[in-house]
Amino acid sequence: MSSSSSEHDDRARKQAEAQLETVVQYVHRLRHIEECSGTGECSVTDEEILSALGFSSESLARAAISMEVREQYHDREDALDYIYNLPLEICVRTGWEPVGGPRKRLADEYYILLCFGGPAVRVWGGLDDYGEPCTAVLEYQDWFTEWAPHTGHQHKDELLEFARCFSYTMP
Question: Which of 96, 93, 90, 124 is nearest to 106 (CA)?
Fold first, then answer.
């Protein structure tokens, strides 16, 4: 691998890590909402709340968290909006089918494009017989390179949970 190629791969891998961090943060927020009543005994820190709601690092130091912000963090619909607005594109693909035979209406695989260009990042995986994600792999690429899996992280469950937030059925 040339120096330039290595730099591109490193840049793409860093972008994948940044996208993974965002996905994990959004999924953890959704999990927290399912488990927490939003009362005073909530274990999430003010910094985590502000970060999940998109406050800049400068704002984090100055912001005093209000009850309204805490309620927004615990709003399930708001959390899902953050997740639904993250992908740039969601696509599905169906495998080979016999000519003249009945068409299979469910797709076999999907991808969720999180960013594109140089570098690009997506979540790619297979769909089960019910059109639900059964696998999720974070992949990245840079200009003129093949998609490569981003390995070495411990967030496979979060990626799959993120992928399951979307519908993959075709009309």
Answer: 93
Q: How many Cα neighbours within 13 Å face the side chain of 115?
A: 20
- Picking from 123, 118, 159, the residue whose alpha carbon sits closest to that of residue 15 is 118
Q: Which two tokens stand for residue 127?
A: 């769909």
Parse the chain into domains and list their residue ranges: 3-36+74-163
Q: Please check the confidence at residue 4 and state whether its pLDDT lies above 70.
A: no
- For 108-158, write each residue's pLDDT tens digit: 899 999 999 889 999 999 999 888 999 999 999 999 889 999 988 899 999
- Sheet arrangement for strand 109-115: 89-93, 109-115, 120-126, 137-141, 148-149
